[in-house]
Amino acid sequence: MTETTYRLAVVAGDGIGPEVVAEGLKCLAAATEGTGIVFETTEFDLGAKRWHATGETLTDADLEAIKGHDVILLGAIGDPTVPSGVLERGLLLKLRFALDQYVNLRPSRLYPGEVSPLREPGEIDFVVVREGTEGPYVGNGGALRVDTPHEIATEVSVNTRHGVERVVRYAFSVAAGRDRKHVTLVHKHNVLVHAGHLWRRTVEAVAPEFPDVTWDYLHIDAATIVMTTDPSRFDVIVTDNLFGDILTDQAAAVSGGIGLAASGNVNPDKTGPSMFEPVHGSAPDIAGQQKADPSATVLSVAMMLDFLGHGELAAKVEAAVAADAAAKAESGLVRSTAEVGDALAARIRA
Amino acid sequence: MTETTYRLAVVAGDGIGPEVVAEGLKCLAAATEGTGIVFETTEFDLGAKRWHATGETLTDADLEAIKGHDVILLGAIGDPTVPSGVLERGLLLKLRFALDQYVNLRPSRLYPGEVSPLREPGEIDFVVVREGTEGPYVGNGGALRVDTPHEIATEVSVNTRHGVERVVRYAFSVAAGRDRKHVTLVHKHNVLVHAGHLWRRTVEAVAPEFPDVTWDYLHIDAATIVMTTDPSRFDVIVTDNLFGDILTDQAAAVSGGIGLAASGNVNPDKTGPSMFEPVHGSAPDIAGQQKADPSATVLSVAMMLDFLGHGELAAKVEAAVAADAAAKAESGLVRSTAEVGDALAARIRA
Ligand SMILES: CC(C)[C@H](C(=O)O)[C@@H](O)C(=O)O
Ligand SMILES: CC(C)[C@H](C(=O)O)[C@@H](O)C(=O)O
User: Fold this and answer.
1) Ramachandran class of A290: left when φ > 0, alpha when ψ lies in -120 to 50, beta otherwise
2) Which of A23, B99, B125, B218 is at a distance of 20 to 30 A from B343, taking alpha carbons?
3) A188, A235, A306, A328: which is the annotated catalytic residue?
């Protein structure tokens, strides 16, 4: 048996993060058992506790240490005791940006057994390719005369041809590997004319490289309507960082809830480790109570395995989550976070 | 009988605009018949046709002429034969900005008989108070090295204490007049920290003026989840221009469709005329075919009457639309735009 060893950086984070990550690692162990694939994990103490103790979010040394890993598994970041934005910008977004994770990959599937809040959801199976390193997320804002009647606050969305082109090309390559081979560009080019037209021109330029792939365009406001009335129409959506943030939460909601929404912050060029995390937040209100559903983290582990080239193992993990979702719907049992993790690990092993 | 005369500027616009506006005016006539309230209308030839003929979107002379009116009724703006953004920015947004229509008021109700795409919509009855003159809509973007590999495009969201405070105060005053008296601020202050914190601090500062009104906060991504899973939870939402654009289309979708979504672009200080328009677009694919539902325009007329202080007439018009929606659901009849308008006018008169 060949041995393959991966260095996995674990950032459990805040709130329910540690609980769901524990189950993610449990399922990773189950999936790799006896395969010769080994994950050497390093835990990173990052998040609210660290910030309260030291004032640090992510130091240069942390970042360097993380860069020495192949992949990252992240739980959740954010805590009400820390000023809003400090951990999000200083830790989560800093990782995405510093490691050039320009593809934020967010699949949506309505698993059998999962109940969509939509009356007629149809067959939901699409992927949002959200840009991860530009747009209004760049942190190029500022404020003047703060807390006076003359305060002015700005936020600058920065979009480059380089940044847009690489994520658009990635989205088309994802579409090329799928059945329907269709890309929908979502933006708001009738108002955000400079950024929007850059996105549109870039899609027009890249599309001919993928003659099998068709594409269309929707404004972000119209996209939320289609996401409500006809989500099965989507195959691959490509969009900017902020629109992708909004649309993927809505997508998670229509496909049965944020409990099953996984994501990968991918650096396809591998100039830095890619990071896998559930779409949900840290949910401080239920933290430490074993109430969180770890399925989204387990699906993120599946995405990580797939990214590393272990598609079969990924499929096994995903199948376990799908089967568990169906069984759960039948039994109606309320289970703890660890019980769900145990059940998933058992299915993966079976 | 006292006579009251209002000067109404009519901008029918593009696509289905002229068709739905005709029915709006028909219902306005029906509502005011025999009341002594008279609307003197001036039609403004603005939109795609004018632009193709003259290259003009909204001249200074047009704007001056419009300013001489009390209110504006607008159909829809936008056409695929005009470069995206030209009419939206040069006409629709120019009107909103130049006339300082800083409150974009967008109520959502699930009328009896209307079918929500949600399985369990609950009682949907909320109002979105969308800021109308700031945010990423200000047009402060630009592009450099266009159409080269080094292109960079920016969009600047501008937010002022002045601009935020007045719309927040308006939202709280709307909430104070409603049963549940609750305001939800929607933003993304964990990422857009400068703008987001300005919004939050402003709400914190204004809230004490309204001791009966409670408030909470949701990130825009989380708001799209609640809009999907529990829209009846909302009472008054206050948010920025772009988030409001996105959220009100989603709101229209969950409450039975864009066919019933009305809006008012209100200048509460009356330093310029307010403008009433359906939320839907110009729908060029069905233009001229008498297929458009004029109900949203008729409801916009109701909002206009309410704004002018004629709450009873507004209620009459709204009741007609509600009754028609219920009757339509039972009969299942497909009617032309004019037939719907006739039916509504008859109900208003009855
Ligand atoms: C926590 C927050 C900064 C983050 C984002 O906005 O990207 C989250 O909402 C997400 O989607 O991963
Ligand atoms: C047509 C467009 C510019 C407009 C907007 O974005 O405000 C529309 O979507 C709306 O909501 O009224």
Assistant:
1) left
2) B125
3) A188
Q: Is B169 annotated as a binding residue?
A: no
- C-alpha torsion sign, points A80, A84, A87, A93: positive
Instruction: Read off the pLDDT of residues B269-315 as tens digits, 9 standing for 90 and up.
Output: 999 999 999 999 999 999 999 999 999 999 999 999 999 999 999 99
Check if the beta carbon of residue B325 is closer than 8 Å to that of residue B260: yes
The minimum CA-CA distance between A206 and chain B, rounded to whole Å, is 12
Q: Which residues of A are annotated as a binding site for substrate?
A: 96, 106, 130, 221
What are phi and psi for residue B253, nearest 5 degrees? -65, -45
Which residue has tokens 């008054």?
Answer: B236
> Is A141 within 8 Å of B250 when comparing Cβ atoms?
no
Query: Of A137, A170, A316, A328, which residue is the catalytic one?
Result: A137
Strand locations in B119-164, DSSP E? 125-131, 142-144, 152-160
Using DSSP bridges, classify how beta strands A4-13 and A71-76 pair: parallel, antiparallel or unpaired. Answer: parallel
Nearest CB neighbour to B198, from listed A88, A143, A162: A143
Q: Where are the alpha helices (DSSP H) in chain B?
A: 17-32, 48-54, 60-67, 86-87, 93-98, 161-176, 193-206, 220-229, 241-254, 295-307, 311-331, 337-349
In this structure, the strands spanning A142-144 and A125-131 are unpaired
Q: How far apart are CA B215 and CA B131, in angstroms?
A: 17
Torsion from C-alpha of A53, A54, A59, A61, nearest 10 degrees: -90
A64, amino acid identity: E
Count the helix, strand and coil residues of chain B and give each as a percent rounded to the nearest 5.
45, 20, 30
Closest to B300 measured CA to CA, from B280, B284, B276:
B276
Q: A137: which 2 tokens?
A: 């997320």
Given the CA of residue A281, which atom of ligand 1 is nearest to it?
A: 1
Looking from the CA of residue A241, the nearest atom of ligand 1 is 7
Of these residues, A62, A79, A240, A245, which one is catalytic?
A245
Determine if residue B350 is labeled as part of a ligand binding site.
no
With the most atoms of ligand 2 within 8 angstroms of its CB, the residue from B46, B88, B277 to mutate is B88
pLDDT tens for residues B10-63?
999 999 999 999 999 999 999 999 999 999 999 999 999 999 999 999 999 999
Helix (H, G, I), strand (E, B) or coil at B10: strand
Mean pLDDT for the stretch of residues B139-157? 97
For position A106, what pLDDT does the model report? 98
Other CB atoms within a 10 A radius of the CB of residue B55 amount to 8
Distance, CA of A175 to CA of A181 (rounded, Å): 5
CA A317 to chain centre: 17
Domain architecture of chain A: domains with CATH:
1-108+261-350 (3.40.718.10), 116-255 (3.40.718.10)
Minimum-distance CB partner of A246 among B141, B161, B221? B221
The count of other CB atoms within 10 Å of the CB of residue B42 is 14
CA nearest neighbour of A76 among A13, A29, A19: A13
Radius of gyration (Cα) for chain A, nearest Å?
20
Written as one string, the DSSP assignment of A118-131 is BSS----EEEEEEE
- Is B245 labelled as part of a ligand binding site? yes
Handedness of CA B331, B334, B336, B337 (dihedral sign): positive
Say whether B137 is catalytic.
yes
Tokens of A98: 């510093």
